[in-house]
Amino acid sequence: QVQLVESGGGLVQAGGSLRLSCVASGGSFTWYVMAWFRQAPGEEREFVAAVNWSGGSTTYSDSVKDRFTCSRDNAKNTVYLQMNSLKPEDTAIYYCAAYRSRTSVPRSSLVAYNDWGQGTQVTVSS
Fold it and tell me: Which of 77, 81, 89, 101 is the most buried if burial means most Cβ atoms within 10 Å?
């Protein structure tokens, strides 16, 4: 089990950029697939992006593909979400999540993830 702490959220205008960070502790970071999910008010939590243990394979939702980049720095136990060309519909609480696996392809299913952070708010104004 790992503990996850997100940071980097905030208020940004449409078209702007933000970079979220998530620091993991309490486990062997390189044994974990890392992901980002988001939840808007009144909506279900949805998958955004994931990266496998090495950083060599990523998966994205169609809604963020080509705008967001998920990456990790195993030396810093940190996963990032670089968000560009932000839209008002990207407004949500963004959660970092993890599950233990050395799989080559990270999963996008919410139920696969065992460990979750507390979330960081991202608000995009029009």
Answer: 81
What burial letters (b/e) apply to 23-49, b meaning 16+ CB within 10 Å? bbeebebeebbbbbbbeeeeeebebbb
> 54-102 pLDDT, tens per residue?
999 999 999 999 999 999 999 999 999 999 999 999 999 999 999 999 9
User: Is the predicted pLDDT of residue 104 greater than 90, yes or no?
Assistant: no
For the chain, list the strands marked E by DSSP: 3-7, 10-13, 18-25, 32-39, 46-51, 58-60, 68-73, 78-83, 92-100, 115-116, 120-125
Residue 8 in tokens: 């980097």
- Would you mind telling me the total number of residues written for the chain in this entry? 126
